[in-house]
Design brief:
- This protein has about 140 residues and is mainly alpha-helical.
- It contains six helices and three strands.
- It has a three-stranded antiparallel sheet with strand order 1-3-2.
- Strand 2 (about 85-90) and strand 3 form a beta hairpin.
């Protein structure tokens, strides 16, 4: 659970939402290169977090995006663990998936774990490069 310090500073949730919504190229680069999360996936995550469980079609209407693009983004979020997905059979038949964001605390931990793994890999690469240069 997120705790707030005695001061009225931003909470972990506030900082994470600001990170996801920031159009700063640095944040976009981190999301894209380290985690493979696109700007559209970050936008879908925010919408899922704000609106709760929904279908790709419903989310596409909220985001004014084509449903296939939104579904692709939601599927990407599901694959990396930032969204959940469950199948349901609508009244009109067929099948559809309901998507929901994972809690921000879980998303932060997933991103932290991915980042730490990326840093470890980069350190290993640099160590290898250094050994090759010195060897």
């Amino acid at each position: 659970m997120c705790e707030t310090a005695a001061t009225s500073g931003p909470t972990q949730i506030d900082r994470f939402q600001a990170f996801l919504s920031d159009d700063d190229l640095q944040n976009e680069a981190v999301l894209s290169h380290v985690f493979g999360v696109t700007r559209h996936e970050a936008r879908a995550y925010r919408a899922l977090h704000n609106h709760g469980e929904t279908t790709a079609q419903e989310l596409a209407e909220r985001l004014d995006r084509h449903p296939s693009n939104v579904y692709e983004g939601l599927d990407g979020l599901y694959e990396i663990g930032l969204a959940t997905r469950r199948r349901r059979v609508p009244d009109h038949g067929g099948k559809e998936y309901m998507f929901a964001s994972v809690p921000i605390e879980d998303a932060v931990q997933i991103i932290r774990d991915e980042f730490e793994e990326w840093v470890r890999q980069m350190r290993d690469e640099l160590d290898s490069l250094e050994a090759a240069c010195n060897g």
